[in-house]
Structure formats: C-alpha cells, structure tokens
Amino acid sequence: MTRVTLDAQLRSRLLDLTQPLDLCDESGRVLGTFRPLAPERGGYVEPPLSAEDWQRREQGPGHTTQEVIDYLEKL
Predict the structure, then answer these.
(1) Is the confidence at residue 42, as pLDDT, over 80?
(2) Range with lowest mean pLDDT among 1-5, 6-10, 70-74
(3) In whole angstroms, what is the distance from residue 6 CA to residue 39 CA?
(4) How many Cβ atoms sit within 10 Å of the Cβ of residue 16?
(5) 31 neighbors 21 (Cβ within 8 angstroms)
(6) Is 26 part of any domain?
(7) Residue 25 lies in a domain
(8) How far, in whole angstroms, is CA 60 from its chain's centroid?
(9) Is 31 within the bounds of a domain?
(10) Among 30, 62, 58, 33, which Cα is nearest to 47's?
(11) Which pTM was predicted?
C-alpha cells in the first residue's frame, strides 16, 4: 500500500469527517475515496443504507444459517 503524509492544514480538514470523501483533481475527476476511521468501532465508517435498501432487505427472502451452510457446501 502506498502511504501519503498530509500536511497539518489538510489533516485538520479531514479529522472531523464522519462520512467518506471523494478526492478529486482540479478538473473534478475522482481519484479515490477517503474513508475516515471510526475509533470507537476500530474500523471504517460505513455509508448509511437508504430507506429503499432497508425495505429491500426486509422484504427479501432471507435464509437460515443452515440454509446458507448447505448452499456453500454444494459449491
């Protein structure tokens, strides 16, 4: 992995982020996404699900753990 060291000014702008941030060049082309760490969770901040995503998940067929295991064993 490549590592870039930020100067104090840019670092201070990134410290309070709670959501992913697109990093762009001068023309607006997205170069990558910065995902701030959530120290209390020890990992990345995940984007929230939209209402449509929650509805889709709730209305989906769903599977028991055993059904998933059985399916994976057949692969």
Answers:
(1) no
(2) 1-5
(3) 19
(4) 7
(5) no
(6) yes
(7) yes
(8) 22
(9) yes
(10) 33
(11) 0.43
